[in-house]
Amino acid sequence: MKNYTTIKDISNLSETIKEAILLKMNPFEFQDLGKNKTLVMLFFNSSLRTRLSTEKAAKNLGMDVMILNINDAWNLEFEDGTVMNVNTSEHIKEAAQVISQYADIIAVRAFPTLEDKAKDESEYVLNNFQKYASVPIINMESATAHPLQAMADAITISELTEKKTPKVVLSWAPHPKALPQAVANSFVEMMQDLDVDLTITHPKGYELNPEITRNSTINYDQEDALKDADFVYVKNWSNYNDYGKILSQDENWMMTKAKLGKAKFMHCLPVRRNVVVEDAVLDSGQSVVIEQANNRTFAAQVVLKQLLENI
Ligand code: AN0
Ligand code: CP
Q1: pLDDT tens per residue across span 226-254
Q2: From the CB of residue 130, how many other CB atoms can be counted at a distance below 10 Å?
Q3: Which of 59, 63, 135, 213 could form an SS bridge with 34, CB 3.0 to 4.6 Å?
Q4: Residue whose CB lies within 8 A of the most ligand 2 atoms, among 141, 186, 236, 272, for a mutation test
Q5: How far is CA 69 from CA 97, 113, 127, 219, 266, in A?
Q6: Do the domain assignments include residue 234?
């Protein structure tokens, strides 16, 4: 693997999932692989899981880890040719090259603006790091994708499924804040690459990017969509068409124990209780959110391992 910015960077998905499960059984097997190698993690936004699980994964492989909350550093300029006489102090051209002097791998978290669709879709933060850094780049959730989360979700479903082709439902939920489409996007792309029967359900108008959903089943009737589901993945996203807007807060879309039926409940976390999903679901044995969070370590570890093997 050369970079991990989208799930398209995975060359053999089923082998990678198997490898992650082996790492989970024996996390310290490759502790010499990362010796004298440094992971630099850059955070433009908050994180609990990504930050801790990726650091843990790197340390399991013997790497050193340095973390920079980028808002504590100089304000970065991404435009080419700008006269930098206003708010930005340092250009990405220098910053990415400088960080590459200290890092063997750079991981970046940079959420979308949710205001400027074209700018967000250009993935200008992630792509400029990739353009100017001289080391591999890992996406720790960008404007449009969260491939480490999707990998952890794929591992979780592979471990827990009792069927060859489980029915997986991605169900939109209400949320008081405008959230990115990134988690949903990467989850859909990942499910399209796995042997699962995927249905996406959301209120009319909440369609994700059709270049991502492609020919996946979309059912606007949540109850009908959830019928016979084996895994229900709940996630809010703000509107993609009327970009970044909240058009519905309809609490009827919240996941409940009654709607879940016998399915396993999945969510990337953090989750707002009794807004996105009721307590009775999260506090039941059907919730696998903690297993998902645990698998974030082995998702990051398999990615770091494949990158280190290629350095
Ligand atoms: C973020 C999102 O929805 O993309 C991060 C999830 C991993 N969620 C929030 O900001 C609540
Ligand atoms: N699921 C996830 O990425 O969580 P954090 O935002 O806490 O990293």
Answers
A1: 999 999 999 999 999 999 999 999 999 99
A2: 18
A3: 63
A4: 141
A5: 18, 18, 19, 40, 29
A6: yes
Q: Which residue puts its alpha carbon closest to atom 6 of ligand 2?
A: 47
Give pLDDT tens digits for 131-141: 999 999 999 99
Q: CB 42: neighbour CB atoms within 10 A?
A: 24
Structural domain including 252 reads 147-293
- Residue 139 sits in a domain whose CATH number is 3.40.50.1370
Contact predicate 142/125, CB 8 Å:
yes
CB-based contact 181:117 (threshold 8 Å): no
Residues with CB under 6 A from ligand 2: 47-50, 141, 149, 268-270
Residue 244 in contact with ligand 1 by CB distance below 6 A: no
Percent of the chain with pLDDT over 70: 100
Q: What is the pLDDT of residue 163?
A: 98
Q: Determine the residue type at 76.
A: L
Q: Which two tokens stand for residue 236?
A: 């809010």
Nearest CA to ligand 2 atom 3: 50
Strands (DSSP E) found in 117-173: 137-139, 167-172
